[in-house]
Give the backbone structure.
Amino acid sequence: MTFLNLIANEVNKMLRKRRFQVVLLILCALIAVFSYAEKQAATAVMHQLGTSDWHARLQQEISSEANFLNSPFASSAEKAGIQATISEGQYELAHNINPYAPGAASFMKTFMDEGITLLIPMFVMVIASDMVSSEFSSGTVKMLLTRGVSRGKVLASKLVALFLLVAMLLGAAAVASYAISGLFFGYQGWDLPVLMGFHTTSTGYVDIGHVFTIPQWQYLLMTFGLGFFVCLSIASLSFMVSTLVQSTASSMGIMMAALIAGTLLSALATSWTAAKYLPVVNLQLSGYLNGSPPPISGMTFAFSVEDLTVWSIAAIVVSFVVFVRRDVMG
Amino acid sequence: MEEIILSVRGLHKRIRRKVIVKDVTFSIKAGEIFGFLGPNGAGKTTTIRMLVGLIRPTSGEITINGWNLRKHPLRAMQNVGCIVENPDLYPYLTGYENLHQLALMQGPEAVGRIDEATKLVHLTHRIHEKVGTYSLGMKQRLGIAQALLPNPKLLILDEPTNGLDPAGIRELRTFLRELANGGMAIFISSHLLAEIELLCDSVAMIRDGQVVQTGKVADLTTLSTAQVVWRVSNPEMALPVLRTFISNKSGEVVHGPGDGQLSCAMTEEDVAGAVQKLQTAGCKIYEIVRKRSTLEDVFLSTTGGDTL
C-alpha cells in the first residue's frame, strides 16, 4: 500500500516538474521536422528522376549502390551494409514490393529503427538522470529517508516510477509519430509488407535465402517492443549514474557522453571487437530484424539482449547497494 | 513525565581520519525542550544526521522511544518528526501537495492530520499555493507541519529560528512550549544562545565535536555570582555605605560599568539594608539590577573565551 503511494508520489513529482512534458514537446517538434524533411526529400527525388514510378527509383538506387561497392575506400563492414541494401532492393523488385510506399506507419518504423540508437535514449536519459540526483541537490532526500520508510523501498519506488515513465514516453512517441507524420503522408500503411529473415554470415555476407515478409503492424510491435527494452536498459544505467554522482547536470553529461561514444564506436570501432561488450553499441536491436549488419562482427541478437540485460541488472544492483549504505552528508 | 524519549550514549563519528563527533551523551524526557548549542562547524548537524539515521555512527547507541536506531531503524524513526538543516520542500508543488506526499509515505493517520498540522502552523490561507512563492518563514513553518504529520514523540528541529522575524520567533516559542506541554520531547539545535535560553529547559553545549557543558538552563545561569549594579544620584557618597554591606568581605565595590553606577556582590538581605541606609543618607536610588549570567557567559567560561 505505501509502496504504491511512493510510486504515485514519484510519478507525480516528475509530471509536476514539467520535465516529462518538455521532453514530449521536443519529441513532437522533432517528429514534425523529420516528417517535413522526408516529404521534401521524396519530392526532390521524384523531380530528379522525372517519374513517380518506384520501380525506376529503386533501380537507380541499386545501381548507384553497386557503384559504391567497387570503391576502394569502402571498408568491409560498409561493403556488407551495401550488399544488404542491394539484395533487399533486388528482392523487393522481384516480389513487387514498394519500399517507398508513404504512410504514417512507415514513418513510425523509420523513426523507431533510427531513433533507438541515440535520439530516444537521450530522452530517456534526461528523465532518468534527474530521478535520484535531484533529491540530493535539493536536499529533499533527507526528508524522504527520515520518514520511517526503508531506503530500499524509497529507491525501488523511484525505479518502478522511472520504468512507468519510460513506458509512457514510448507510448507517446508511438502516438505522436503516427498522428503528426500522418498529416504529411496520410494515416495508412499498417498492412504494407516488411522484409524479415536476413542472416548475416560470419564473413559479413548477407544471406537472403530465407527472407519472407510480414505486415508492417507486426513489425512495429516488434520494433517498439525492442525499443522499450533498450530504453529500460538506458534508464537503469542513467539511474545508477544519477544515484552515484548526485548531480543532475553531471549525470546527464556522463550519460550523454556514453551514448554519443556508443554511436561513434558503432561507426568506427569495427576492428576493436572488445567494444561489443559495451552496452551503448548494442542498442540497435531492430537492426537484427531488418537486416542491417551489426556494428561489430560476432554480435548477434541474443548477444545484444544478454549484454544489455547483464548491464542493466548490474546497474540496478550497484544503485541499491550504494543508496542503502551511503551516509547522507550536506 | 519522566519517560526518556531520546537517549544518546557515547556517540562517535569519524570520517576518514577526522573525528567529527566525539563521545556525545545526553537524554531527553517527554515534555522537555532540549537545546543543542554550539558554534557552526562544532558537529551539531552531523550529530542530528546520526539521530535521524542519515549517517551511520562510528560507534555509540541511539535509542528513540525504546527502539534502538541501529537495530530497528524504521520503528525508531516512526516516532520522530524532524527538519534537518533546512525545511526540504519541492518548490514546484503546493504546500498541501508537499504535505500530502509525505503523509502518503506515512500512512492514513498522517493523511488525516494534514489539515490539523496546517492550522497549527497558521498556513491554511496559503496552503494551496506553490512553495516556490513562500517566504523563508513560511517554508520554515511548512517544514514544522511536515515534521508534525506522524504525530511524533520526538521533534528534532535544526536551527528552527533561521528566517523567522522576531514576532515569528516569539510565536515559535509559544508553539513549541504548547507541544512540549502535550508531552512531546523537543530537540532544538542553534548557534544563537540568547534564543535558546528563553526556549529550552535544558541544554548541551558542544564544541569541536565534544559536549563541554550540560544541565538545566535555570541551574546553569544561576551558577555564577550575585552581582548587583546600582545607579544612584551620588556614587561618591554611596560607595562607603555599600562597602559596609558587601557579603563577601574580600569583595570590592567598584565604579561602573556605566556612568553613576556601582557594582558589587550582595545578598538580597544586604541589598534591603543598603537601600534603607542610602535613603536616610539622602542619596537617591534610580535603579538596582541583579545581573544573572546568560548562557553565553556560561558557554564562554567553559570554553576559554572563544567567541561564537
Notes: The longest strand of chain A covers residues 193-196. Chain A is about 70% helix and 5% strand. Chain A touches chain B at residues 2, 5-6, 8-9, 12-13, 16-18, 138-150, 327-330 (CB under 8 Å).
